[in-house]
Every structure is written in structure tokens, then in C-alpha cells.
Specification:
mainly alpha, Cytochrome Bc1 Complex, Chain D, domain 2, 2 domains, two-stranded antiparallel sheet, 2 strands, 58% helix, 2% strand, elongated, binds heme C
């Protein structure tokens, strides 16, 4: 009987000590986290900002005469970029303004790619061809409207188109 009693006393003592140690560790851990949490999380700008953000009032009331302070991101009025009509390349100009006549040879227009029809014209020299294309002219086979009647084209664009036509037709 006395052995059982001894065992029981010892057992209680061990359990008690273990429980006390566990409690001490728990208290110590709480204390430590209390001391260090602030340093690592609660004092950081992100954490503070997140709190301020989540407890911020949904709306604000401005009394008459009160300046509305800039809250939230100020959206700059997007300045529309200057519409710069990008100059078209020779082939682009040709396709949009010249192909209608020069593609199949409408009304006496020399056909693109037809070297025979172009040889004599090319012999006049590029300056003349470009001038005729820009200013338009009445030739023996038909009427070439100035810039192919596309007066929105720049002289350079028309010249590039002539370059392209000549290179395709010689
Ligand atoms: C409405 C029809 C038409 C359109 C569109 C047109 N052409 Fe012509 N083009 C002609 C005709 C017709 C001739 C031939 C005139 C002649 O020699 O009698 C011609 C001739 C030319 C010549 C030869 C000039 C020469 O001195 O022999 C060039 C270069 C030319 N065109 C360039 C162009 C270019 C570049 C465009 C587009 C920007 C264009 N053409 C659009 C009808 C057109």
C-alpha cells in the first residue's frame, strides 16, 4: 500500500512540475510575442496603412465652402496624343490611292508591272514622273489626276508610290 502511495505522490509531483513548466513556457511565449510582434508587424508602415484603410469611413461630408481634399488617386486628364498621321510607305500609298487605275490600267493608265508600258515613261526621268504624279497631267493616253485625286497625300508619299510603281514595272 505504501508503495502505491509513494508512486502516486511521485506521479503527481512529476505531472505538477510538467504542468508548471508548460505554463511557464506558455507565459514566456506570450510575453515574447508581445514584445516582438510590434517590432516586426504592428509598427510597420504597411500594417498601419492597412488598418487605416480598413477603418477609414466610406464617405466624407463636405460642408459648403469646404475644400474637398484630394482623396484617392488623382486621375490626370489623359492628354490625347497629337494625331500624327504616320506617313504611308510607297506600297501602302499605291494600294490605297493608285491601284484603282494603275492596277488594271483604267482609262489609259499604265499598268503596274507592265514594263513595256512604263519603259518610255521611265525614260523621261524620275523627276518628271513624280511631278506628273503630284501635279497631275493630261497625257496622250488619258488623264492622270493630281496625286491620284488623293490630295491628302504628301508629296513624299506620292513620290514613294511612284518609286514603288517604277521599281515594280521596270
Ligand atoms: C483616276 C485614275 C488614276 C489614279 C487614281 C492614278 N493615276 Fe496615275 N495615271 C493615270 C493615267 C490615265 C495615266 C496616264 C496618263 C497619260 O500618260 O496619258 C497615269 C500616269 C501616271 C504616271 C506616269 C506619268 C508619266 O509622266 O508618264 C505616274 C508616275 C502615275 N500615274 C502615278 C500615279 C500615282 C503615284 C498614283 C497614286 C497616288 C496614281 N498615279 C493614281 C490615272 C490614274
Amino acid at each position: 500500500m505504501s508503495r502505491d502511495q509513494k508512486f502516486f505522490d511521485m506521479y503527481s509531483l512529476v505531472i505538477g512540475v510538467l504542468a508548471a513548466i508548460a505554463l511557464a513556457i506558455l507565459v514566456l511565449a506570450m510575453k515574447m510575442s508581445d514584445l516582438t510582434q510590434g517590432v516586426y508587424t504592428r509598427d510597420t508602415a504597411e500594417y498601419q496603412a492597412a488598418i487605416a484603410n480598413s477603418i477609414a469611413p466610406v464617405g466624407k461630408v463636405y460642408l459648403p465652402g469646404e475644400e474637398q481634399e484630394a482623396s484617392g488617386p488623382v486621375v490626370e486628364a489623359a492628354t490625347a496624343p497629337e494625331p500624327v498621321a504616320a506617313a504611308m510607305t510607297g506600297p501602302q500609298v499605291y494600294n490605297s490611292a493608285c491601284n484603282a487605275c494603275h492596277g488594271i490600267g483604267v482609262a489609259g493608265a499604265p499598268k503596274l508591272g507592265d514594263a513595256a508600258q512604263w519603259a518610255e515613261r521611265i525614260a523621261q526621268g524620275m523627276d518628271v514622273l513624280v511631278r506628273h504624279a503630284i501635279e497631275g497631267y493630261q497625257g496622250s493616253s488619258g488623264f492622270m489626276p493630281a496625286k491620284g485625286a488623293r490630295l491628302d497625300l504628301s508629296d513624299e508619299e506620292v513620290a514613294d508610290a511612284v518609286d514603288y510603281m517604277v521599281s515594280e514595272s521596270s
